[in-house]
Amino acid sequence: MSEMSYARNLIKGNVVERTHLRQASNEHCFGVQIATKQIDEGIAAGQLAAEAGAAWMDLNCGCPIYEATRRGLGAALLRKPTKLGRLVAGIAEGTPIPLTVKIRTGESASKINVMQVATALQNAGAAAVTIHGRTMEQRYKRAADWGLVQQAAHQLTVPIIGNGDVLTFYEANRRMGEHGCIAVMTGRGALIKPWLFQEYKDQRELNPSTLERVGIYYQLVRYMKEHFGDDAKGRKKAFYFLPWHFNFFCRYRSLPEETYATRSLQQPLISTRVETADENLGESVDSLSHLERLLRCESEAAHEHLAAALWDCDNEQHAVSELEKLAGEHVSEWEASAAPSRDEREGRIDENRG
């Protein structure tokens, strides 16, 4: 599914918003996500999505960021379920492709209304409802409440897609099997390990090596060059995103089912703090290569240097060579600088993008 677009800007032809309509040549399942509170805007956006080849359109009523909620969009729409139902009914009736809706469990812990909202959406003709198991105010704090997702899945006829804290294929299996969802949606989990979808398809952990993950870093940089351009302007735009992505990549750790499945029942693995070396797997810092430690390093300075080094590389072998050199010279320094501010940085970066 695309990045969220503000329907009003999309209709006006905003260049940035229109890029969200682009479908990759290898993207066989493609939907467009919008934010709006007006039926006419939603219908017009739906027409554009259909013309772009989208199989469905999604109305985002779950985004908690201020930029959306201050306009009465995103999760702010959850405050008035009846009005939201009328909005969805109007857009669904006038749009040539199916309309799905993404919601949260409510505005706050004292204002949980997920069943009322989901029922209204079912009656309005939503093709499916995605439920993020947190409130608007919780954003990404606390574990997602899958009990509420399960309640909706078992009591309603509209297909329910569950969302929140999915990092492994076995967690996805459990959410679909035990909680009655037809599918699960992953956000941060896919940012941490983009191969999560292949793991679910294969029903096994892929556990890419250090060198294979360098290849993934390098591939992302190549994609950024292709999209933004291999010049000073393109570099500036790409460097807004690359360190942010590397902050998620560095959180990857192997989480074998035999070791972590039981632990995942007690606390979501995505929020389980794992140090540089995982003692549960018999690791120590000394047992890790400098390059592996660099890929696990949470220092913002490390991520900026990674982006700069990879941008100038010609191929994967060159990338490995440059990052090995960078790791040998600086990884201990960056590890030391990252440790004191880890908690503050995690909260800020996770929440800034909604």
Features:
354 residues, seven-stranded parallel β-sheet, alpha/beta, 17 helices, disordered C terminus
Nutshell version of this structure?
The protein is α/β, with parallel strands linked by helices and 354 residues long. It has helices at residues 7-12, 15-19, 39-51, 66-69, 81-94, 114-124, 146-155, 169-179, 188-192, 196-202, 210-228, 232-249, 257-266, 290-296, 300-311, 316-338, 342-352; strands at residues 5-6, 31-35, 56-61, 99-104, 128-132, 160-163, 183-185.
Describe this structure in words.
- This protein is of the alpha/beta class.
- The chain contains 17 helices and 7 strands.
- It has a 7-stranded parallel beta sheet.
- Strand 5 (about 130), helix 7 (about 145-155) and strand 6 (about 160-165) form a beta-alpha-beta unit.
- It starts with a strand and ends with a helix.
- Mean pLDDT is about 95; it is low at about 345-354.
